[in-house]
Please model this.
Amino acid sequence: MAKREDLPGSAGFGAKLTRTERVHRTVRPRRNRRTDWSRRMVRETVLTPDDLIWPLFIVEGTGVREPVASMPGVVRYSVDEAVKAVAEAERLGIPAIALFPYTNPALRDETGSEALNPDNLVCRACKAVKDAAPDIGIITDVALDPYTSHGHDGLVDDGRILNDETVNVLVEQSLIQVRAGADIIAPSDMMDGRVGAIREALEADGHIETQIMAYSAKYASGFYGPFRDAVGSSATLYGDKRTYQMDCGNTDEAIREAELDIAEGADMIMVKPGLPYLDILARLRATFGMPTYAYQVSGEYAMLCAAFENGWLKREVCMLESLIAFKRAGADGVLTYFALEAAKALQEG
Ligand code: PBG
Model:
């Protein structure tokens, strides 16, 4: 035990100090944390509305805002309501939205043919949103799961998910979405070679400026459950997606997947889910230096909301802390169901 007069700060000059005590007197990390202005001055990472991408669900009808039970606060919007909501997102400074359809179950079939209907829900939503909010980017999801009767992202033959046949359909789906006004095509299907095939078709069709955000490292995850409720595929999905989505034990494989997508013409890459995979995000960002996004998926959102609703966690502070974690790990932005709420909270300071 040090004697009281030897303790830093209490001993007079000239008192004999150990080396540790001398260092303690010189280096005090808490100095920078003492005041709010100083904390702001030294903060390494900030979150702004520019970092937020808002995924939203679309449903048929007019005047509809239909709650998704497993995602408190999230609704499915009819196109007219989506337009109003997206206009608000634009006002809040959110740079882009991502559209996901709840397809009428009567329109779902084995091959997901509604995905290729140029007048499907997503295409109508793209057009309406483009007219009403021209300064916000529109990201569309390329995959078949909202359209198939079996809930898989690709074509199925005897329980196997067919790769190359699916890619041909995804290429057509992408072209239809781009013609409807989509700015960024986001293949979330995890078929091999899809980014290259889509890029080639876009170039051939004259869409040389369309961006591709590749779901490069998309893991077969339990955290997608509430999303599948929202798009109505959880009721129908049989089996799992492990033959195309990645195994949660793998890291090097994420590097190889991202490398392929970049070589095939992706403009941006993504990691999904988010918080449970921050290590993957940090590694991809450091390896490739590409615009890299994280998807804070439905289950992460639901988990936080459950704790908020129980009064176990404070809503705003934990929401913002969960989002800045992505920035700190290297993300250029985050797809999050909290986007509107977070943008409002950030605006209000
Ligand atoms: C499917 C798709 C999924 C999500 C986005 N696109 C689910 C899945 O792969 O089954 C999940 C998003 C979320 O959970 O928020 N193409």
Notes: The chain has a mean pLDDT of 95. The longest strand covers residues 211-218.
